[in-house]
Write a structure and sequence with these properties.
single chain; MFS transporter; MFS_dom; Growth Hormone, Chain: A; mainly alpha; membrane; about 450 residues; transmembrane; cell membrane
């Protein structure tokens, strides 16, 4: 790497703790909208299948619903390139305003889309369209909120600040899970399948408006403002990422595969898995999922505090080792089919996932220099999510249908954990501390 591509030094201007807290909150709120949107879709997958793909048998309808879920993730890299370019060239703030507005609007639109019984084939077509709008905006949201939050962090708390992006993701999933569970508790099964499922999607617009209000009041990060006053070595951020930062991009993809497969498997797909493979009611599975997310939110900052002291590499190795050893026994525990075994399995999963949840954001964000960071992180993250994480519910459903084994999704998780382990052992040696100090 030549001198013109080295990371830009951190700006020395004074940033108050109050500004930092508002920056973290503003960055987190949009990420919360993203994960709320995707969680609600995944949690209501069985009902969405019945409303938009009613002419298929239940398994085929569920596969179609998850296929739409998975296919929309392939739009995310396009959003990452589009929003990343403007974020690196013109600033993080305005791009983050656009992404949260688009996500909120698309979520409400899904809630208002008539079913197949009302408008025929136009219903699944509109569902696909709005899911693609969500995915396009989400392609710039996660990476933007990660960059924004980490760039506001003090040097000795970069993992802790970055962890709040993951906490907000869990919070969005939790709010979605609780909203879905509440809808199930307060309505009949018939009403839930007919119209009550739409309420959580419409409520997503309220969170989006709150995100717009919070983000409109903040400035761009000190690091970005400093970089703007210096010569621009990269005219096209995307071209520079592929020319000069291929190894950094591959490392970010590897770490993201482990986190995204884990989080989509256990926070989005697991309630559907429990409903279709055990006798536990969907409402109970959603409540257990909510408890899992609370545990995850509590443990992630503690993992991040530890990473600020020892670096991320050791925690990522521990995550990979624990997941490889424990994932099959935990699936077997869930397969016992009692409410207690299901909840215990979910909570133990959360404890393991917290290790990567507390480290992934800062580890991947600080691999890239400021002038290509939004694009580099966005493209790497969304390639991993499109190819592995977002497809986890579809692949898991297909694996069970093809093999007949309810344990088959566990081996997909082991594959993802193995990738993280290899990246941590070999590629991150000496890099995690350097990345956090840039």
């Amino acid at each position: 790497m030549n001198e013109t591509t080295k990371p830009t030094p951190v700006m020395s201007e004074t940033v108050t703790n109050s500004i930092r807290r508002r920056a973290v909150l503003a960055g987190a709120i949009g990420n919360m909208v993203e994960w709320y949107d995707f969680a609600v879709y995944g949690l209501f997958a069985v009902i969405i299948a019945a409303n938009f793909f009613p002419n298929q048998d239940p398994t085929a309808g569920l596969l179609s619903t998850f296929a739409v879920f998975a296919a929309s993730f392939f739009i995310r890299p396009l959003g990452a390139v589009f929003f990343g370019h403007f974020g690196d060239k013109h600033g993080r703030k305005n791009v983050l305003l656009a992404t949260v507005a688009l996500m909120g609007a698309a979520t409400v639109a899904i809630g208002l889309t008539p079913s197949y019984a009302s408008i025929g084939l136009a219903a699944p077509a509109l569902l696909v369209l709005f899911r693609f709008v969500q995915a396009f905006s989400a392609g710039g949201e996660w990476s933007g909120s990660s960059v924004y939050t980490v760039e506001y962090a003090p040097r000795n708390r970069r993992y802790l600040y970055g962890s709040w992006v993951q906490v907000s993701a869990s919070a969005g999933t939790l709010v979605g899970s609780l909203t879905a569970a509440l809808c199930g508790l307060l309505s009949s099964e018939a009403a839930l399948r007919d119209w009550v499922w739409r309420i959580p999607f419409i409520l997503g617009g309220i969170i989006g408006v709150l995100g717009l209000i919070l983000r409109a009041k903040l400035e761009d990060t000190p690091e970005f403002r400093k970089a703007q006053s210096e010569p621009k070595p990269h005219k096209t951020p995307l071209g520079s990422v592929f020319r000069n930062y291929r190894s950094e991009g591959l490392i970010a993809i590897g770490v993201t595969i482990g986190y995204s497969v884990s989080i989509y498997m256990f926070s989005t797909y697991l309630p559907t898995y429990i409903k279709t493979t055990t006798q536990v009611r969907l409402t109970d599975a959603l409540l257990g999922n909510s408890l899992q997310l609370v545990v995850l939110m509590i443990l992630i900052p503690f993992a991040a505090i530890l990473a600020d002291k020892v670096g991320s590499r050791k925690l990522l190795i521990a995550f990979a080792a624990l997941m490889i050893v424990c994932v099959v026994p935990l699936f077997q525990l869930i397969a016992v089919g009692t409410l207690g075994s299901v909840i215990l399995g979910q909570v133990l999963f959360a404890a393991i996932v917290s290790l990567i949840g507390g480290t992934a954001v800062t580890t991947t964000t600080r691999l890239f220099p400021i002038d290509v960071r939004y694009t580099g992180l966005g493209v790497s993250y969304n390639i991993a999510v499109a190819g592995f994480g977002g497809t986890a519910p579809f692949i898991s459903t297909w694996l069970i249908g093809s093999t007949g084994s309810p344990l088959s999704p566990a081996y997909y998780v082991i594959f993802a954990a193995l990738i993280v382990g290899l990246v941590a052992v070999f590629a991150l040696k000496g890099r995690d501390a350097a990345a956090a100090s840039n």
